Input
Amino acid sequence: MAEKVLLVDDEKEFVEGLAERMELRGMNVTACTNPQEALDKVDAESFDAIVLDLQMPGIDGIEALKHIKKTRPEMQVILLSGHATVEKGIEAMKLGAMDFVEKPADINVLTDKIKKAQAKKMIIVEEKTKEKVEEIIKQKGW
Output
């Protein structure tokens, strides 16, 4: 099953190039250069992994991560930055980011992390479904 990925970075050429490389590896990629547009897509659709730039004008990666984890905690976020600091990396992981990758990201490393994100999301969704079924069975007394 193809990984469904949302790629968010304000650098248009970078987003287009990386999206093309990811699609060549069989991924279903939606690319955004506007963080607010990306958050609207997160609210409307489900993604296996979100590759999110840390530094963007307006809503930065940390703020976007907070929104995503609050509204769609099952979605896995990989933060991407050319200006990584240890403090930002630690903050991102504490807020629920799955991983933190420095630009320029090795496409093979990023692809591997996206596949792991998809697997992790599937486990979370499966656990939530199991809990819902158990709750329904408990309520119905079957």
